[in-house]
């Protein structure tokens, strides 16, 4: 509720500015505010600039202001609103030719997707950004955009558990941006996650600290360094020292109102107090963590539903185009056969032409088969992930059936993650035995789960659960 009132206040408090908002000035002042962690001023300043650009009928300026506003909203964990402004920026960029701004647009979309756990979709946007940057001048702003791509792809690869890709991004980062402190924070994080080379962690964090001062880095960079120092001392079981660094990072995250980092820090402080056997303080931070986590999680579910719906529309268009191509190729093949038959009947001397046409038909049929296999392969791969109890099964399922998943969680919000996974097995038409293998339970347990799920969904007793799932 506080966040809603805060955003409303920002909207209401924006006043018209009389000065001109050149893109360079807009970016410069926005960067100053961001480095200080004053994101509410970023929001106010760019809202005023957006009004100015609309009055001047300047689509390029509107796109830039919309992107900056979206960045601030994403920091506030207002991802649905952020994506709305990015959609507006995309509409304006269709009217101008600016590869640098298109790259920034893709980066901000990717940032929202990554915060929502849509890591693969985020990387698709980051790859688009790279393509735009290849055709952009080598300005400082475009260099910053490329650095953004490196850092976020690196982070996404870590969440997707792709070690080869992680190492590739690390090498690129060190080669192209050797003086960026966040590169060394990310390397330290790698060692921390593996609980290895703790002396190296200290070295890289010290290097990041020095560079952060030299480059006058953003406030968030200092928070990130302090958090990793806290993690380091937690691994060393020096809990008082760890608590000191977590308490150093928390005010930074609170100042910039960065919800995901605030939640994470509340959780770390709670765990540290627990290790110190200070139960009252542990419970205090557990309550803060729970309250904020529930609030942000609710907003994220709405944002994910919105993103998934848009992706579903795009995928549905792709599927329709694919099937149209299959039908077209089949029509060409049949038409070719009929034509060849008539030619051969009229003139047997044209056997050579017949052979050539037959070869074309074979190629067309092969292409049609390949297109069909492309549709089926993903489904087969998903079934294998389910039966092998792959931890990424549910993420892949959301990608394959976004419309189904969105409809399920919107109509039945009371379903647990376990319920959703079980329904996903049914959507793939797995047998009770196969479902049992997925959860390492008996067939009888699967039947019991079906019975309880039917009651939870309030389905008629004569309704088959599998049929209901397939028809949803």
From TrEMBL:
The keyword Transmembrane applies. Keywords: Cytoplasm, Membrane, Repeat, TPR repeat, Transmembrane, Transmembrane helix. It comes from the Bacteria. The chain crosses the membrane at residues 322-343. GO terms for molecular function: DNA binding. Gene3D superfamilies: Tetratricopeptide repeat domain, Winged helix-like DNA-binding domain superfamily/Winged helix DNA-binding domain. Its main location: cytoplasm. It is found in: Cytoplasm. GO terms for cellular component: cytoplasm. One of its GO terms (biological process) is regulation of DNA-templated transcription. Belongs to the Rap family. This is Tetratricopeptide repeat. It comes from Chryseobacterium jejuense.
């Amino acid at each position: 509720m506080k966040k809603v009132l805060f955003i409303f206040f920002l909207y209401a408090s924006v006043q018209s500015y009389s000065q001109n908002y050149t893109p360079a000035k807009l970016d410069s002042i926005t960067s100053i505010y961001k480095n200080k962690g004053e994101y509410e001023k970023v929001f106010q300043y760019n809202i005023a600039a957006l009004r100015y650009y609309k009055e001047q009928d300047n689509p390029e300026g509107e796109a830039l202001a919309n992107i900056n506003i979206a960045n601030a909203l994403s920091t506030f964990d207002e991802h649905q609103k952020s994506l709305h402004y990015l959609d507006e920026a995309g509409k304006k960029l269709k009217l101008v030719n600016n590869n640098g701004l298109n790259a920034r647009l893709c980066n901000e979309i990717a940032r929202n997707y990554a915060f929502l756990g849509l890591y693969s979709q985020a990387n698709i946007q980051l790859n688009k950004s790279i393509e735009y940057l290849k055709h952009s001048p080598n300005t400082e702003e475009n260099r910053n955009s490329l650095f953004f791509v490196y850092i976020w792809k690196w982070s996404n690869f870590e969440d997707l558990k792709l070690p080869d890709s992680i190492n590739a991004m690390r090498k690129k980062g060190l080669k192209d941006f050797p003086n960026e402190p966040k590169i060394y924070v990310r390397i330290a994080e790698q060692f921390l996650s593996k609980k290895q080379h703790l002396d190296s962690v200290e070295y890289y964090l010290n290097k990041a600290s020095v560079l952060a001062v030299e480059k006058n880095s953003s406030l968030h960079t200092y928070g990130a360094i302090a958090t990793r120092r806290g993690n380091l001392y937690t691994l060393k079981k020096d809990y008082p020292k760890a608590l000191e660094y977590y308490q150093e990072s928390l005010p930074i995250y609170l100042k910039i109102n960065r919800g995901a980092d605030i939640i994470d820090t509340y959780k770390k402080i709670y765990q540290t107090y627990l290790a110190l056997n200070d139960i009252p303080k542990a419970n205090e931070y557990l309550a803060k963590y729970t309250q904020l986590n529930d609030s942000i999680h609710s907003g994220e579910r709405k944002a994910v539903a919105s993103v998934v719906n848009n992706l579903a529309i795009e995928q549905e268009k792709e599927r329709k185009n694919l099937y149209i191509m299959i039908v077209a190729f089949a029509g060409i093949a049949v038409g070719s056969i009929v034509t060849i038959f008539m030619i051969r009947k009229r003139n047997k001397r044209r056997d050579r032409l017949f052979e050539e046409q037959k070869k074309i038909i074979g190629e067309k049929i092969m292409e049609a088969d390949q297109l069909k296999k492309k549709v089926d392969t993903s489904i087969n791969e998903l079934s294998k992930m389910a039966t092998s109890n792959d931890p990424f099964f549910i993420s892949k399922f959301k990608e394959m059936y976004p419309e189904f998943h969105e409809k399920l969680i919107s109509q039945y919000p009371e379903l647990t993650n376990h319920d959703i996974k079980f329904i996903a097995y049914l959507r793939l038409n797995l047998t009770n035995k196969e479902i049992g293998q997925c959860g390492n339970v008996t067939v009888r347990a699967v039947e019991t789960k079906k019975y309880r799920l039917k009651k939870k969904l309030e389905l008629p007793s004569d309704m088959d659960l599998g049929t209901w799932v397939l028809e949803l």
